[in-house]
Amino acid sequence: MFSRQLLRSTTSKVNVLRSVESTTLKSFSLLNARSYSVASQKKNNFPKTLLARDSNSFFKRVSVPRRYMGHAIETRNASFKKLSESDVKFFESFMPKERVYATKEIGGTLDSKDLEGFNSDWLNKYSGNSQLVLLPTSAEEVSKILKYCNDQTIAVVPQGGNTGLVGGSVPVFDEVIVSLSKMNKVRSLDKDSGALVCDAGCVLEELDNYVLPDGTIVNNLSTLRKDSTGYDIKQLFIGSEGTLGIVTGVSILAAKRPSSVNVAVLGLESYDDVRNTFKSSRGHLCEILSAFEFWDARCMEIVLNHFKMSNPLSEKYPFYALVETSGSNAEHDETKLTSFLELTMEEGLVKDGVLAQDKSQIAKMWTMREGIPESLAHFGATYKYDISIPISKLYQIVPDIKNRLSEAGVYDNNSDSSSMETDKVVKSVNGYGHIGDGNLHLNIVADKFEEKVTNLLEPYIYEWVQNVSGSISAEHGLGIMKPNDLKYTKGPEIISIMKDMKHMFDPKGIMNPYKYLPA
């Protein structure tokens, strides 16, 4: 019989939200949203320390070579203008000074260190030296900024929550940072369709409104579910990482919040059992299946140790899976999930499992999966690879990387301590992700970022992914980390078309330069 015991866990909360609700949204939810904040202490109307991420960020500051994960940084493009006091005065002519953060070198009042939070990424891995951060509150202000920058050939970096993992939202040199953190208003909500329109500083799901580098405002904020008239221009901006323009508004389909949510954590003996359990869940749970996540034993050991939680299962297993159902009939959904779990246990696919009994237990179960990045980050430098692979081969790269690093003498393949105590440079190799769409998060934890480890990982990982017809980026994007590796996923003809599109939208190349596309 399927185990239904309570989770044996101490209270330790991870700051991750799976849904967002406000008086405006009412019963609608923005699924898989995350909450981040901007911390500041004011002095003379300017922040003493400007952080583009939470001041309690759990990520350690680690030393990173200028080479940035194996890719040499280009020299600064000499055609880009260097900022002067006159540029700052122009921006202050239509924006209040408290939204124009300028350093003393260009006529402002701040020191360079005061902009560190904007110049460094969320993982403290990539950083630049911008002397100017602009915080517009409307598309019109963004338009004025970009028109001036285009006329003056001033390079620009759009920045949202600055939570990216590939350096896409921070400057490489001294580009102007246009932060959208002040553009966070909800504009409208269609209660019949659930279509919500808001500023780009809110949670993003679908991008529809953008400003081109020359300052032109393109308005495509329709709340229609279907529209087959003309080319779908917004698709060009989705995933373009600020290289074509700046998104200023979004249209989101806010799904009706399900009245019944069930979550179970399962213990499995092999990745093949994980894969076959997922296949079975699609057939038995059908329309109520809303999530199927998996992670390995190493991840479980580390996350339980970090959050001081107990394993909800009576024994340790090589793999774990989280299954979530969402529907409108609690009794029907729970019966269906329980029946599925008992069936998979009878078939030998699942060895043990526990079903959450309330919202608190659901949150704790999700912490076991979503708390993995935080848990790993406490131990040093984390090489993060976000790859898309056919489901049948999704986990195979993890043991392959372990063997490669072990043979090179930088990793102990027999180490399984959650304390990360080892005399090797690489402390841990971990795999977890979303099996439903073939997305693996491959994380390698080391003492620090160093060239020897980087050269063992790259381009080996990208070549491995290419050989199974995968993608080198499933979610994280390309940023500064992977533009020269785009060739492992896209052919030369496609890359050429992408470069032509970039030139068409941004002929001066001022939008997020040095990134996304190979030089």
From TrEMBL:
PROSITE patterns the record matches: FAD_PCMH
Lineage: superkingdom: Eukaryota
Sample GO molecular function, one term: D-lactate dehydrogenase (cytochrome) activity
Keywords: FAD, Flavoprotein, Oxidoreductase
Domain FAD-binding PCMH-type: 126-313
Cofactors, names only: FAD
This protein's record includes keyword Amino-acid biosynthesis: no
InterPro entries on file: FAD-bd_oxidored_4_C, FAD-bd_PCMH, FAD-bd_PCMH-like_sf, FAD-bd_PCMH_sub1, FAD-bd_PCMH_sub2, FAD-linked_Oxase-like_C, FAD-oxidored/transferase_4, Oxid_FAD_bind_N
UniProt family annotation: Belongs to the FAD-binding oxidoreductase/transferase type 4 family.
Cellular component per GO, a single term: mitochondrion
Catalysed reactions, as listed in the record: (R)-lactate + 2 Fe(III)-[cytochrome c] = 2 Fe(II)-[cytochrome c] + pyruvate + 2 H(+)
Species classification: Eukaryota, Fungi, Fungi incertae sedis, Zoopagomycota, Kickxellomycotina
Protein name as catalogued: FAD-binding PCMH-type domain-containing protein
